[in-house]
Amino acid sequence: MNDMISLQGKTFVVMGVANFRSIAWGIAQSLHSAGANLIFTYANERLEKGVRELADSLENPNNLLVQCDVTSDEDLAKCFASIKEQVGTIHGVAHCIAFANKEDLKGDFVDTSRDGYLLSQNISAYSLVGVAREAKPLMVEGGSIVTLTYLGGERVMQNYNLMGVSKAALEASVRYLANDLGKYNIRVNSISAGPIRTLSAKGVGDFNTILKEIEEKAPLRRNVTQEEVGDSALFLFSDLARGITGENIHVDSGYHIMG
Ligand code: NDP
Ligand code: N5H
Known about the structure:
The chain is α/β, with parallel strands linked by helices. It has a single domain (about 10-195, about 225-255), classed as Rossmann fold (3-Layer(aba) Sandwich), CATH 3.40.50. The protein contains seven helices and seven strands, in the order E-H-E-H-E-H-E-H-E-H-E-H-H-E. It has a seven-stranded parallel sheet with strand order 3-2-1-4-5-6-7, sandwiched between helices. Helix 1 (about 25-35) packs across helix 7, helix 3 (about 75-85) packs parallel to helix 4 and helix 4 (about 115-135) packs parallel to helix 5. The longest helix is centred in the middle third of the chain and has 22 residues, at about 115-135. The structure holds NADPH dihydro-nicotinamide-adenine-dinucleotide phosphate (NDP) and ligand N5H.
């Protein structure tokens, strides 16, 4: 049990657990350690079993699972309607979802196709807007929405390409959503995580080189973990962060301050 932050009696929706390496799973573990009730969403049936096994591995598992492909307005509406029916009030959402076609994560950004661009914006940026809209009526006691971004949304990073543009849209969406939802005491923030080896990062050429550069250049001289991102999300979900909204917190060993 986390002895600094208690979220006992509060309920959070965690979107984007693919496996035990997922950042969403790090966030789920931190929330669980603070006594929160969890609801997991998964994109399609293919992943249900794995997510169910992970959810059940948490001590005291009374966690719910709901299907939600964020490209579908119908899924989004049904997902939050089902959550409302099962638990009533929620206190936050962790949005840990992004996608771009592999061919758009290498070469020149200028070659990005219209379809590839729209797909990535749809899954990686618009989905936060749809999620916030559907989650808002369930956060009647106020709430906190946390999404994940990467430094490539602020600066040009080799090969991040289309995903950098999607993250820039996501980060701007955080600010506009924060302004809309502040009057309901709902806060919206992002965490800009340093590189972490997850399923999404699989197949990224030179990932080792990227990790090594952080070890050499970042102020903390090491990489970050899912647990560290999870604990920062826990802070943003808690009352300790009640004055913070529209913010992007870098959990990246300080790498972003370096020239
Ligand atoms: P994971 O591969 O573990 O998670 C990505 C998740 O996105 C998967 O659970 C995937 O679900 C989900 N997803 C993709 N398409 C959809 C969809 N249409 N509907 C619902 N869910 C979907 O990787 P990470 O944990 O690394 O990624 C989580 C977030 O963290 C992303 O936003 C990523 O950009 C961000 N991030 C990651 C960093 C890293 O180095 N790993 C660094 C900074 C930010 P499914 O498998 O079911 O398709
Ligand atoms: C500068 C870099 C390295 C190059 C770019 C990597 C971008 C990664 C983000 C996206 C989300 C990865 C992605 O969409 C992969 C898919 O094309 C293929 N993978 C899948 O479909 C798997 C099965 C599913 C689970 O993945 C998803 N996303 O659904 C950035 C790195 C140093 C840091 C990084 C990895 C950032 C990030 O945003 O994830």
